[in-house]
Write a structure and sequence with these properties.
Blueprint lengths: L26 H4 L7 H16 L4 H5 L9 H23 L11 H7 L7 H20 L9 E4 L2 E4 H23 L4
Antiparallel strand pairs: 1-2
């Protein structure tokens, strides 16, 4: 696995998003993230995920804890796809693009993605690349960009809310990997 990315602290405080900056559904992810150092949190999460995934083999990647659930590689692929989509939304909104963005169907993305047949190592490398790209995008935003709002999936959302959703979504799924996929493995 690659060397860690360096995250420079922002020259300003990035406050937590407030209710009204995101659809209530996303509170399930935002509420998982403590504090207000979102850049540090995203970087720390990358290291935590790498620790969880290091030493895993294809049997671990192909494991399903129930027949109707994604395997571990599909779950990690879903995390990557979702982060890409939410980072893209953050980019467009940060740059002042007011064009509403459509939602996406996560099950279609997993079903039509390469995850089930791709080597676990490739999906891990993809996770690293996606998280690095997200960190590069976010740490280079100007202060005013963080509070800009746009419409995604028919809901008003701010850039800072999207950053917290990315972090909370990853944490939610990492906990599932820890508790249901890799426990005792």
């Amino acid at each position: 696995m690659s060397e860690p990315a360096v995250v420079s602290p922002a020259a300003f405080v990035i406050a937590r998003p407030e209710p009204g900056e995101y659809a209530p559904y996303y509170d399930r992810y935002i509420s998982l993230i403590p504090g207000s150092d979102i850049l540090g949190t995203l970087d720390s999460q990358r290291r935590q995920m790498m620790l969880l995934l290091s030493g895993r083999d294809e049997a671990d990647g192909n494991f399903r804890y129930a027949s109707d659930k994604w395997n571990a590689k599909e779950l990690l692929g879903h995390v990557c796809d979702t982060e890409r989509i939410f980072a893209y939304r953050a980019l467009r909104i940060a740059r002042g693009d007011r064009t509403p963005m459509e939602g996406f169907e996560q099950d279609d993305y997993v079903r039509n993605g390469p995850f089930a047949r791709a080597p676990l190592a490739e999906i891990i490398e993809d996770y690293i690349a996606v998280r690095r790209a997200t960190l590069t995008l976010l740490r280079n935003l100007e202060e005013a960009a963080w509070t800009r709002r746009g419409v995604a999936n028919k809901n008003d959302v701010s850039v800072r809310a999207l950053a917290y959703v990315i972090a909370g979504h990853e944490l939610h799924h990492r906990r599932i990997l820890e508790e249901k996929y890799f426990v005792g493995r």
